Amino acid sequence: MTEDARLSxxxxxxxxxxxxxxxxxxxxLREGDGWLILNANRARGGRLARFISERTAEYRxxxxxxxxxxxxxxxxxxxxNVELPDRDLAHVADPRLQHEYQIADRVSKDMQYxxxxxxxxxxxxxxxxxxHEAHQLDRVVxxxxxxxxxxxxxxxxxxxxxxxxxxxxxxxxxxxxxFYRRVYETSLIAV
Length: 191
Known about the structure:
Blueprint: H1 3-6, H2 9-23, H3 25-31, E1 34-37, H4 42-57, E2 65-69, H5 70-83, H6 95-117, E3 120-124, H7 131-146, E4 150-154, H8 159-169, H9 174-186, E5 187-190
Parallel strand pairs: 1-4, 1-5, 2-3, 3-4
Helix pairs in contact: 2-4, 5-6, 5-7, 7-8, 7-9, 8-9
């Protein structure tokens, strides 16, 4: 039995839709069209990430792509929004600690650059657990939308659970409403 035969009808449909997306990738990137893929547990998310990685490899070096796991995004979000922004490195007495902060700052800025400027950003495992993560994700999506750059978000969460994650970060619901509006305007959505 092949792997395709074991896939659910939803996954076979999604892989067909993704195939069409990548067959017209130049147009999709020019338009800034992305994806929000929900309910992608570890196995499904892994299959999708492999598929997307293989398809994007076909187009190198014609466009840039950046793949990022959620844990790396969350760590970057913590460093950029919590640990580093108020840190005045000139006042760190220990030279070794100062050097470590400089490295962390440089790595964080490099990741930020790739997230904001790559032609295609693929973020796998999206599940914001802290307010700074939800806010950072919204800022990245907003900036990418402004630049008309494509973003693929893969999450193990349902739409309702993802909304709840955002509402935990911002009980007013404004953050979720804005994030979802941006994603809805620029992305195909798959359950």
